[in-house]
Design a protein that fits this description.
727 residues, alpha/beta, eight-stranded mixed barrel, five-stranded parallel sheet, 26 helices, 45% helix, binds ligand C2E, binds calcium ion
Length: 727
């Protein structure tokens, strides 16, 4: 049906009227009257002609003469009602005066209204206009009702209306659709609807309804229903009470809406916001929330409550060597084990369940991931420290079991800090900080243990934290420098190379490695620091050559974990190429203990390095594992006798015996030997006598800034000839 138009509304085309009359004069006069009021009129002189016209034109209104030869008005009206688009078209039937029977017949035939023929055209025009207006209103109403139904369908919403007594519950078609019923299924009563609810909710809903009815209050709730096809949907129900004229409650009207998708999204968001996506454990936010609840609970009931901070030892090493994929796998596995320790009974547990208001402290018991390799365990009700320690031991034991990563077994340990409410803090923040302090004290005491907070621990770890962040910045700001100490071949009076030793220029202070290297190793910062040292050494070699004509080889100290990096060789090559220095101008020192600890991981790198021409020196030799058999298999070029033996030369006999043994071993393996920490002539003479000719120590020079080293090499009495280290 086209939109009925109204006279005087210039936004629309003039309303179209079909005028049907067999009386030509009447036709002419009526048409001109309507036209003069802005209507567009088409004329038909009979019913058949009218029906023909209506085949391809739909007017906004038809004025139809009742009495016509052939098809009369009544029959025409009846027939046109079945034409598409004409079902609701306003039809004004023109009848003769006092013709009650005709009026009756007109309505029967489907006429909208009747008008007694007269010559008062303005009356007819007024009637036509009214009819047009009401048709338009009617049409708009229909349209908006259709829109509403469509909107409700889209929103998966539908209305219902519930009257007490025989009429009962009535659901609109849209509401029936929400419940998976056909729109014709009007007989879905309250009882059957309640039966659609899933078991557990049925009684709850019945009780709620009784409660709402008793107080005539608004109903506003969600329910899970099982649809006839077996699917489950979450339905939101909202209804308002209706009262009769005496003020008595007589029923309810409201809407139901399928909110399943929305709820699923909400749940997903809730889950994402509260659970760690990697391990599925509660995340920091959720942990904080649970910790707060646990604390409240403990406060109210006068209980103790423990917070355990669990930090994996050397996790960064695994991440750096094996890559993040394996690191993630490890975290997932450790998370699973920690969880299992706390809730031995449930393997999958309460992951993903709704965070209902917590009823019991058991729910507050949790293991979560704070971030990175840090986990937290909450123990809501404990007897005391001993109890927390027992659990910490259990957690430690669980982490220690080997983890299978990429087909190989890895051993992981953790450090645990314990804080107990109320002894170690009255807020979650305080407890967490103090658990952190305790955890750090475990780390500095050698890791792989648990420790409860003690006030005296606080200072130590805070200093450490400050130092750590300062060290981070030191690297970024270029506060690190290398000093160089010559290695001297005493007999030939020449320098065979230099060792690069790192210093930190912190303000006016020059910080020595002992004060920052251990922390750098612990935090993993040593890796970028070592990378920097390699680049810096290469740059310096080039600069000595360009500016002082010196060809010096430089030994760089690297922690064993640097050798585990797969791209170490490439890194060194890049640095050498960048500054145009040969690879044999670079040497690496790795301590014996570091080497032994990670032998299997380090050996491949050593081979690649040696092949590329980079010399490898075993530092602090003699202090590590005494079995020297492994040396035969290692691609190394130099042993550095630890300074403790040199220091004791001439003091204990044993030290010279050790040095002799090392020299004999080195000779048999074709390795160079250098003694470090040579401070006086006596040491130098003994070493020479034993057959160790290459030395390093304060007797010759302290570690010097690059420029000072060049000067030193030029000073009279200093060894003057400098060469690349022999390959
Ligand atoms: P190290 O590799 O054994 O270095 C030799 C240490 O002995 C240096 O201490 C050096 O200054 C000191 N020294 C040299 N001659 C004598 C001497 O005649 N008598 C005595 N008593 N000491 C002497 P420094 O520079 O304080 O470095 C200490 C340690 O820090 C180094 O021991 C090394 O393990 C580490 N280190 C230094 N620089 C770096 C670096 O760039 N990277 C890494 N990973 N570690 C470094
Ligand atoms: Ca060294
Ligand atoms: Ca050393």
């Amino acid at each position: 049906m086209s939109l009925p138009r109204e006279e005087g509304d210039d936004e629309r085309a003039p309303p179209g009227v079909l005028l049907v009359d067999d009386d030509e004069v009447n036709l002419l006069l009526t048409a001109s009257a309507l036209r003069s009021r802005g209507m567009q009129v088409r004329e038909a002189s009979g019913g058949a002609a009218a029906l023909r016209l209506l085949q391809d034109w739909t007017p906004d209104l038809i004025v139809l003469d009742a009495l016509m030869p052939g098809l009369d008005g009544f029959e025409t009206c009846r027939r046109l009602r079945s034409l598409p688009g004409c079902e609701l078209l306003p039809v004004l039937m023109l009848t003769g005066l006092d013709d009650d029977a005709s009026i009756e017949r007109a309505y029967d035939a489907g006429a909208t209204d009747f008008f007694v023929k007269s010559t008062q055209w303005s009356l007819l025009c007024g009637r036509v206009r009214n009819l047009l207006r009401s048709a338009r209103t009617h049409h708009e109403l229909l349209r908006s009702r259709a829109k509403l139904a469509r909107a409700q369908d889209l929103a998966r919403m539908g209305s219902f209306d519930w009257r007490f007594g025989p009429r009962g519950l009535r659901l609109e078609p849209e509401a029936l659709r929400v419940l998976g019923r056909s729109p014709r299924d009007r007989r879905l009563g309250l009882r059957r609807m309640l039966r659609m609810l899933v078991g557990a909710e049925r009684h709850g809903m019945a009780a709620l309804l009784r409660e709402v009815l008793r107080h005539s209050t608004v109903l506003d709730t969600d329910a899970t229903v099982a649809l006839p096809d077996g699917r489950r949907r979450i339905i939101h129900i909202e209804a308002e009470p209706e009262f009769d004229e005496h003020g008595n409650l007589c029923g309810y009207t409201g809407v139901i809406q399928d909110v399943t998708d929305r709820r699923m999204i909400e749940d997903r968001i809730k889950h994402l916001a509260n659970f760690d996506s990697l391990t599925g454990l509660p995340n920091r936010r959720q942990l904080m929330w649970r910790a707060e609840r646990a604390l409240e609970h403990a406060r109210r009931l006068g209980h103790r409550f423990a917070l355990l901070l669990i930090d994996l030892d050397r996790f960064k090493g695994i991440n750096d060597t094996l890559g993040h994929g394996a690191g993630d796998e490890l975290l997932v596995e450790i998370g699973r084990r920690l969880r299992a320790c706390l809730n031995p009974g449930d393997a999958l547990g309460d992951l993903g369940v709704e965070l209902n208001p917590l009823h019991s402290h058991r729910v507050l018991e949790a293991v979560g991931r704070l971030g990175g390799d840090e986990f937290v365990a909450l123990l809501p009700e404990i007897d005391g420290e001993a109890c927390a320690k027992r659990l910490a031991e259990r957690l430690l034991q669980a982490t220690r079991a080997p983890v299978l990563l990429e087909g190989r077994e890895y051993f992981v340990t953790a450090s645990v800090g314990i804080a107990i409410y109320p002894r170690d803090g009255h807020s979650v923040v305080d407890l967490l900080r103090n658990a952190d302090v305790a955890m750090y004290s475990v780390k500095s005491a050698g890791r792989n243990a648990a420790q409860a907070y003690r006030p005296h621990l606080a200072g130590q770890s805070r200093q450490k934290l400050e130092l750590e962040s300062a060290l981070h910045k030191a690297l970024e700001r270029g506060e690190l420098v290398l000093h160089y100490q010559p290695k001297v071949e005493v007999g030939g009076h020449r320098v065979t190379g230099v060792e690069a030793l790192m210093r930190w220029r912190r303000g006016t202070e020059l910080v020595l490695p002992a004060d920052f290297i251990p922390l750098a190793e612990e935090t993993g910062l040593i890796v970028p620091m070592s990378e920097w040292a390699i680049r810096e050494a290469a740059r310096q070699i080039r600069s000595w050559r360009d500016e002082s004509g010196l060809d010096l080889s430089v030994a760089i100290n690297l922690p064993s974990r640097a050798f585990e990096r797969s791209d170490l060789v490439e890194q060194i090559q890049r640095a050498a190429v960048l500054h145009g220095v040969p690879l044999r101008a670079l040497e690496l020192e790795i301590t014996e203990t570091g080497l032994m600890k990670n032998l299997q991981e380090v050996i491949p790198a050593l081979h690649r390095l040696t092949r590329s021409g980079v010399g490898i020196s075993i530092d602090d030799f003699g202090t590590g594992y005494s079995s020297l058999a492994y040396l035969t298999q290692l691609p190394i070029s130099e042993l550095k006798i630890d300074r403790s033996f040199v220091h004791n030369l001439g003091i204990t006999e044993q030290s010279s015996a050790v040095i002799s043994a090392i020299l004999a071993l080195a000779r048999s393996l074709g390795l160079r030997v250098i003694a470090e920490g040579v401070e006086n002539h006596r040491q130098r003479e003994v070493l020479s006598r034993l057959g160790c000719d290459t030395m390093q120590g304060y007797l010759f020079a302290e570690p010097l800034p690059a420029a000072a080293l060049a000067d030193w090499l030029g000073t009279p009495g200093a060894p003057t000839r400098t060469v690349w280290a022999p390959a």
